[in-house]
């Protein structure tokens, strides 16, 4: 079972989804959980089947003290790079929290200071700490819903299934149709995926 990671009760966990995609936004969530919060099913969103993720997302939105989600579009990703865009998405999610957190727990090992609020970077935090895992669930489910909406306008890329990730079918569609306005032009769409470590 995941544990709470609280340097104080009012600590926000934050995580992102979609960093490795060829299309669509990078999405981040920030979550403040109540003291003593427990959920035996909560884990890193990548380890949870879609139906359970959706149920967990509904539970988190209902039970969290505060939560927020933010998207950063492909044009911004191309302009500032995926690392900066991921951190920007986290900051935008944190901007929306009410109450304001007193500390921030960040999944991964890279972040930029958010005002004067202290932060902790935690490698694989989404599989270790409840507040980061909750943020990973909200980021993943929100981004998946966003990609399903984009799929309606561009069904040729199969985003309802691949969510913008570099699957073979997605690359085959790029070869046939070329990139859409929602593809990240700074990524190697038909070569090896551009790798930027966080």
TrEMBL record:
Q: Give its E.C. classification number.
A: 3.1.26.4
Residues annotated as binding a divalent metal cation: 15-16, 107
Organism whose genome encodes this protein = Robiginitalea marina
Q: What InterPro entries does the annotation carry?
A: RNase_HII (IPR022898), RNase_HII/HIII (IPR001352), RNase_HII/HIII_dom (IPR024567), RNaseH-like_sf (IPR012337), RNaseH_sf (IPR036397)
Q: Which reaction does it catalyse?
A: Endonucleolytic cleavage to 5'-phosphomonoester
Q: Which family does it belong to?
A: Belongs to the RNase HII family.
Q: What does this protein do?
A: Endonuclease that specifically degrades the RNA of RNA-DNA hybrids.
Cofactor annotation: Mg(2+); Mn(2+)
Q: Which gene encodes it?
A: rnhB
Instruction: Cite the cofactor comment.
Output: Manganese or magnesium. Binds 1 divalent metal ion per monomer in the absence of substrate. May bind a second metal ion after substrate binding.
Specify the signal sequence span. Answer: none
Keywords linked to the UniProt accession: Cytoplasm, Endonuclease, Hydrolase, Manganese, Metal-binding, Nuclease
State where the protein is found. Answer: Cytoplasm
Xref: PROSITE patterns = RNASE_H_2
On whether Ligase is a keyword of this UniProt record, the answer is no
State the Gene Ontology terms under molecular function: RNA-DNA hybrid ribonuclease activity
Location of the RNase H type-2 domain: 9-198
Out of the domains of life, which is the source?
Bacteria
What's this protein's name? Ribonuclease HII
Asked whether the UniProt record includes Cytoplasm among its keywords, one would answer yes
């Amino acid at each position: 079972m995941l544990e709470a990671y609280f340097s104080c009760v009012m600590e926000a966990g934050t995580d992102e989804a979609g960093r490795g995609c060829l299309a669509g936004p990078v999405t981040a969530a920030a979550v403040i959980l109540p003291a003593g919060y427990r959920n035996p099913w909560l884990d890193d969103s990548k380890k949870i089947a879609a139906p359970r993720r959706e149920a967990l997302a509904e539970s988190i939105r209902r039970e969290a003290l505060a939560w927020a989600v933010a998207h950063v579009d492909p044009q911004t990703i191309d302009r500032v790079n995926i690392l900066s865009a991921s951190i920007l998405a986290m900051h935008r999610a944190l901007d929306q929290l009410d109450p304001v957190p007193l500390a921030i727990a960040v999944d991964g090992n890279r972040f930029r200071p958010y005002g004067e609020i202290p932060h902790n970077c935690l490698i694989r935090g989404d599989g270790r700490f409840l507040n980061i895992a909750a943020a990973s669930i909200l980021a993943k489910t929100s981004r998946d819903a966003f990609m399903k909406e984009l799929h309606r306008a561009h069904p040729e890329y199969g985003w309802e299934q691949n969510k913008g990730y570099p699957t073979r079918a997605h690359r085959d569609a790029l070869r046939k149709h070329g990139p859409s306005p929602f593809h990240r032009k700074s990524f190697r769409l038909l070569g090896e995926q551009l790798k930027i470590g966080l």
